[in-house]
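U., I forgot to send this yesterday:
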Amino acid sequence: MAANAIPGKVRRGFPSGIASGPRIILRAALLAAAAFTAAPAFAQTNDPNLTQKQVDCLNRTTAAGAGCDKDGGAKNGEGTPGTAGGAVFLPALIVDLFPNPPVGAAPQTPAPSNGASSSNGSGNTPPPAPAPSGPVTVPQGLNLAEPPRAIAGDFVPDEVLVTVDGDAGVVQQIANSFGLQVRSQRQSRLLGSTLVRFGITDGRPVGVVLAQLAADGRTQRREPNHIYTLQQAAGIVNYAFDRIALDSKQASGENVRVAVIDTGIDDTNPALAGVIADQYDAMPNVPIEKRDHGTSVDGLIAGVGPLEGMAPGAKIYHARAFEGGKSTMDVILSALDWAAEQNVRIINMSFVGPKNDLLGTACRNARALGMVLVAAAGNNGPKAPYGYPAAFDGVIAVTATDAKDGLMPQANRGAYVFISAPGVEMVAPSGAGSDVVTGTSFAAAIVSGAIANLIHASPDRSADDIEKALAATAKDLGPKGRDNDFGYGLIDTKAAGAAK
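Result:
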């Protein structure tokens, strides 16, 4: 989140602070981990009916455990007793661009990548992490700093992501202390520290390793390597200009820099002629097979010719970070860092996944640098958990509406939904020429294009000003005021441009 796009057809898209001690400590740690099964990703529990509060309780993110019972569930009848016994919960993910997998099929884990490089040859690809010279064994006496936690969302089952205060030597010391393999490491601009992807080679559950690493003060943040999915739904003229009050003859995002994090693209498509300013491949070791989704998103933002986008003249900085409809947290963070280095004004993120502190920090710091962050709210249905990065503060979460301003039935709902935009059955460029597309991915692209128009008209306008203007001028849909379905309502580009 694979069938080829067919012209004229509708695509279905959618570790040194180790506490040493007698073996009984290790036994206690292993017993504590027994509830956290080492099953692969496809055996994880999926309960889309959990409320966001329940998910936060399971992840121990609620402040001081407020409102959570001792088992990690929500109090006052909001949870089901016993649900936090180490189970791993997933949102019901939509696999975009590709048919739904057969019932019982195991989800595929993206191939791991070791660093990233620029597709135009200007970047440097770090050498692959060296394999251990011998068998990796778990050090004896490892003491859990905290209980293994339940992890919400799909993730790579044998990896963890850690930010480290130290150099490569410190990273290797941590790896040796905790029986881990250094698979990649790099300095992250947006995280402000060294981001390390550690491999777990002995079958320990991710939750146990995260708890063990918490004992080492040199590790700052520790997260699973979560998996994210593109947001395209099943899917007849582009009606977006009219619905968002944008005159197609006056629309312009000239020279506004927009970063798009998505699949690879077909840069030979006429709709993208002169549109792509630069490209970056955040997963260079994975062959590019699908280009439709990214091509459609770029085209809807700044396409030219018959399939003109919302902001012709805008310059797209495209980061390829998805294949097979999926990506991982380390790959997405690499793409975000690259985007931040390009001095872009807007970052479009048409994908959804679970809450991850590393992603939240990167988004928060990008916003502090003045970038406007736009993300798809998600296509996982009304009862789905919140979709991230859209649900992070400072990210404009976009839901999709149709030509009659009706909400796309598959759209996520929740207080995080910020604004609505056309995203149902729209014609857009694709790897095969053009196609009809549906999903919050494409609604997000429409909003990114609209914002590019606002920045073109007023280059000094801040991200905060733009967000406030969009909220104040949106056409109210659904219940009066902001609601969980439409957010503030349908984007009104003309009114937002005139707002002070």
